[in-house]
Amino acid sequence: MGFRCGGVTILLVLCLWGLFIPFSSSTRLGSSSRQKLEVNKHLNRLNKPPTKTIQSPDGDTIDCVPVSKQPAFDHPFLKDHKILMRPDFHPEGLFEENKLDESKEKSSTPINQLWHAGGKCPEGTIPIRRTKEEDVLRASSVRRYGRKKHRSAAPKPRSADPGMENQSGHQHAIAYVEGDKFYGAKATINVWEPKIQQANEFSLSQLWVLGGSFGQDLNSIEAGWQVSPDLYGDNNTRLFTYWTSDAYQATGCYNLLCSGFIQVSSDIAMGASISPISSYRDSQYDISILIWKDPKEGHWWMQFGNGGTVMGYWPSFLFSYLADSATMIEWGGEVVNSEPDGQHTSTEMGSGHFPEEGFGKASYFRNIQVVDSSNNLKAPKGLGTYTEYPNCYDVQTGSNGDWGHFFYYGGPGKNANCQ
C-alpha cells in the first residue's frame, strides 16, 4: 500500500517509521523535530519498562526487565514462543579449567561487570543496558543503530587479494577451521582495553560461528569483547554478541538492540563493561565463551564465564544455513582502519603488542575447541591462521597440556613496518 510522503510514493510503513532516512554528519539526528520523534520512537521500542533500575559506576543504566518483555519478543515469529530457561543438552568434554600451569597462573579475582557494584537483577528478569538518545545520535541513521556497517565482513581466510579485504577497512588476525560440520565453538579469551585512534573505529576479540558462503547469504553468530566508542560512547571493554543471516545487510544486530537473541540470565548484561582487565607485565584476566547448537530444539545457545552462566539462545528460525550446522569457526581479533590513502590507524588489537611477546604482554585465546555432531567438545583439527597485514597485527598458534590449542594475536597497528 503506497501513498504520497514528501513527494515520493513509498510504502506506508516505511514512511511512518522513517527507516530509510539517512542522517548526514552536517545535520545530525537531533536537528529536526521529525528526526527527534524517530529517535524517541526507537528508544521506546528498545527500552522496555523495568521492574528495577541499577546505576553503574561507568555511567550505564541497567534496567531489570521481565524475561518475557525483552526486545526479542517484538519479533512476529516469537509472539507465541515458549521461553526455554535451559538447553536440553550441554556439550560434553569441557576442558579442565583448573589445569593452569603455575608459571602462567592468573589472578583468582573473578571477571565481573561494573554494574554489579550497584546491585543485582531479580530472578525472572534480565539486565539490559539502557539505550540513551546520544547513543542513537552517533549512528548514521535510526535503522543502522546497533548494526555493523554494510561493508562489514567476517574474515575470509586465504583471500586472493588482501587489498580487496581492506576496502571495508576491517582487518583481522585469526585462527580458523573449515571443511567439516560444526555445531559450536568454545574459547577462553584474554581481556584487554586496546587504544582506539578514532571514535568511528573499534577493536574486538571474538569467536565466529559461520554458515553459508561469504556472499550475500552469510550466516554468523559472534561473541566476545569489544571497545567501540561509536556504539557505546566510551572506551570501556564490553561483552558483546552479534548475529546476521544475510552478511550484515538487513538482519541482526549487536547485543539486544533488535529482536532475535532470547536472554535468560539475570546476572550478565550484554554490552556492559567487563572488570577487571589485563595489564602489561601484570595480572591477566580472561573470559570463557561457549556457543553450541542444542541437538533437540536446534537453537544456538551461549554460555559465559568459567562458572557456566547460560546467557540465552538464538532461535533456529533466524538462520538459513546455521539452522543445520556451521561450516567454519573463527577465533581472533578485528579492528577498523578508517585512515584514507593507504595510511594505517594506530588502533590496537588485543593488548596492542605482537604475539611473539608472549604471556603477560600479548593477548591470547586458549582452550579453543569445536563441538562435533555428537555434541562433544573436541580440539580443532587442521587449525589455520590468517591476517591481512602481519606487520600491523599478527597471529601465532601453539598447543600444550595446560592450554590445549591456543594462540597469541594482535599488534599496535601503525608502526615503522606498518604505515
UniProtKB/TrEMBL annotation:
Protein name per UniProt: Neprosin PEP catalytic domain-containing protein
Spans annotated as Disordered: 99-126, 139-170
Alphabetized InterPro entries for the sequence: Glutamic_endopeptidase (IPR053168), Neprosin (IPR004314), Neprosin_propep (IPR025521)
Domain of life of the native organism: Eukaryota
Keyword DNA repair in annotation: no
PROSITE patterns found in the cross-reference section: NEPROSIN_PEP_CD
Coiled coil residues, start to end: none
Annotated Basic residues bias: 144-153
Signal sequence coordinates: 1-26
UniProt organism field: Pisum sativum
